[in-house]
Specification:
The chain has helices at residues 57-68, 92-107, 114-125, 131-136, 173-178, 186-204, 211-214, 221-224, 231-241, 266-276, and strands spanning 3-13, 22-36, 40-44, 76-81, 139-145, 148-154, 160-167, 245-248, 255-260, 283-288. The model has no long low-confidence stretch (mean pLDDT 95). With 296 residues, it is an alpha+beta fold. It contains ten helices and ten strands.
Length: 296
Amino acid sequence: MEKVVIKAPASTANLGSGFDAMGIALDLCNTVELEECDRLVIASADGSETPADETNLVYQTVKDVYELCGKKLPGLKITQCSPIPQARGLGSSSACIAAGIAGANQLLGAPLSQQELLDLGCKMEGHPDNVAPAMLGGFVTSVMENGHVYTIRKPVSEELCFCAFVPDFPLLTSKARAALPQAVPHKDAVYNLSRAAFMAAAFCENRPEYFAVAAGDRLHQPYRMGLIPGAEQLFARLPDLGAKAVFISGAGPTIMAITEKSDKVFAEKAAQLLQENEVLGRFKLTKLAARNESMI
């Protein structure tokens, strides 16, 4: 039987001001092997925690795609290598959904178009900020309208580095969303609207000197900061070390800093900062690049 191998990237979403609308694919990828068989067999190739039953998100996604295309899935062999940490704000669930959709489409002979794959992925995830960049690569801004996702993609400069400060504790998206207010002041909405537009322009024009002001946010980060011990300290200290922007990655708890690859000392100073502080010592610094390659 045919076997397909899919690489699905991590992603960082929101970028501060672009709540539920912006995201960037990163060069940390889950690898998923899929093969039809007469029963469900799920294995982890790297020892990561992987559900081995029908609750597995990759399996659920593949099954949904088969049903959408009018074909019953008899069984499936899934082998997953999953270095993207779960419940850390790096798009682990979106990577599973993207892998399942792309893999199922290949197994079925590619009956779905790129747009159909995008629409399906965003519908499954509920919002496009992680799924769209995972599927398309690069920096992606997205809008959902009547079940359809509209996207504009821009390759990210290879000169940028994404420094992920990943803590040793999770934060469920449901808990992070529950911390948000039901309504926000008009002035806060305007504050974010102007900066989100500015962030998109800054990426399109490759102007990292504007990232810091463009990442300003009043819609979600102030309400989530208290859920992430050490976040306020990182927000206060990392710009002084040379970060072009600092923001909560997705729903958190990872804190993301954008730097330039030419900056040879930021990582050293940041690592020293983590060592000197007991609370910040719970964070691990991982340097990543943007992934501009599309997977669909």
